[in-house]
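WARN  no MSA supplied for this record, continuing single-sequence
INFO  ligand: fe (ii) ion
INFO  echoing inputs
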Amino acid sequence: MSQHQTADITQAVLDRLADSTDPRFKEIISAVIRHAHAVVREVDLRPEEWMGAIQFLTRAGQTCDEKRQEFILLSDTLGISMLVVALDQARRSAAALADKTAKVRPTEATVQGPFYWQGAPELPLGADIGKDMPGEPAYYSGRITDTHGKPLARCCLDVWSGNGEGVYDMQMGEEAGMQLRARFYTDDAGRYHFWSIKPSYYPVPDDGPVGDMLRKMGRHPNRPGHIHMMVYRDGYVPVTTHLFASDSKYLDSDAVFGVRDSLIVPYKRHERGAAPDGRVMDKPFHSAQYDFVLAPAA
Ligand SMILES: [Fe+2]
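INFO  complex generated
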């Protein structure tokens, strides 16, 4: 019998996986089939609506190029990227999270976003990566430890952000090259410090199909001001995260659902004069302090 009734078509499709030899693929695609069929049934999907969805995905693909990834944007704005990040961190840090003798919890992870650029220059502690960029200077400092409070020396802090207007180097045109990004390594006491700018909120690219979707949902495209950090050292679970400026707009409605309370940091404003590292500033500046914690790798 090759003609499937509405009621049994889902099982018929699942049965066709009998010869699939990859168990994990089979598990995932089976769930996709079950949930997609359930959506169609739940909303009694009309043919023209399904064609609209296909055209939306087609446009999303056509919007992608080397610098624009509309599907990551779709995943981010639907909260799927953040969900995957949170589950991954819980899985990889399970031992540290269950360790009753631990003094501090691992730093929470959040989305990587589309602007990470591998191979940022390694700069000495104290360097300024925001020089000559629009924005107010900010001094960043803190320590990196394990979950027992032991300082981690030679731990990499790979940092990137947009300028004070929320624009990333990748959006500045071909000639800009790498800006506002660097890799710093902690000193023997696990400390780091560097200069950049105080980050501003910015919109995710909303001139494509995902922007149309957001408008139809009645949503804005903005992310609160943040600086990205990837923190890693051999023997520890790496963490990709942000620090969010506590006085930024949109903290309660991040377009990609990346905000975690533990990552919101006050930026203290200082008048011009001596900075914490002895540098004399000729204009007002900010300081932000944050201690990162890495979980030991299982
Ligand atoms: Fe960002």
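The radius of gyration is 23 Å.
INFO  checksum written, moving to next record
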